Amino acid sequence: MDAYTLLSSLERFLQERGIEVAGLTADPMLALMFDWHRLVKVDKMEQVPLSDALVYRYGGWSEGCATGFRFSVLRRVTQQGEQGPVSFNAGVTLMFDPGKLGHLQPLSVASTDHESLERFLEAIEDSPAYKQLSSATPMGAMLEMGALR
Predict the structure, then answer these.
(1) How far is CA 144 from CA 17, 73, 74, 84, in A?
(2) Domain limits, the chain
(3) Spatial separation of the C-alpha atoms in residues 78 and 75, rounded to whole Å
(4) d(Cα 27, Cα 120) in Å, to the nearest integer?
(5) Which of 3, 20, 95, 117 is most solvent-facing, going by the fewest CB within 10 Å?
(6) What is the 3-state secondary structure (H, E, C) of the chain?
């Protein structure tokens, strides 16, 4: 398992369902990520992961003269590596105009912080960013991946 394998799994899941990332808004993106987490197992390498969690995060973003408000749901799979645990992430990030969202403090929470996925979904739906963005059209949408040691 690595970040590319996880991202490929997400891409196949999108393709099987006929979903274009560019057309996603927050509501269908949440449904997609929760379904992928529930329905697609990641232990194909005969190594059971130490953890398999969803991560919800949002906040302002700036790089040079480009700014945006990132709204992401990522899947984080942690496995035992040769030098200790390693986590791989893959998911969807929606980018919004930061104009009316600048007052929101960045947030990052994982499904492991809640007793069930249903409670985690409720926490997302109760968040200030979700309440403002649930049906808003993003400036852009992208698949994202990464790794942490």
Answers:
(1) 19, 10, 8, 24
(2) 3-148
(3) 10
(4) 14
(5) 20
(6) CCHHHHHHHHHHHHHHHCCCHHHCCHHHHHHHHHHHHHHCCCCCCCCCCCEEEEEEEEEEEEECCEEEEEEEEEEEEEEEECCEEEEEEEEEEEEECCCCCCCCCCEEEEHHHCCCHHHHHHHHHHCHHHHHHCCCCCCEEEEEEEEEC
> Other C-beta atoms within 10 Å of 57: how many?
17
Mean pLDDT, the chain, rounded, equals 89
- Spell out the long-range contacts of 116-124 with Cβ–Cβ below 8 A and sequence spacing 24 or more: 117/34, 117/37, 117/38, 117/54, 120/54, 120/56, 121/30, 121/34, 123/56, 124/30, 124/56, 124/73
The answer to whether 109 and 58 are in contact (CB under 8 A) is: no
Name the amino acid, one letter, at 105. Answer: Q
Amino acid 80: pLDDT: 84
Per-residue pLDDT at 45: 54
> In this predicted model, what pLDDT tens digit does every residue of 58-111 receive, in sequence order?
998 766 666 789 999 999 999 888 888 889 999 999 999 888 888 889 999 999
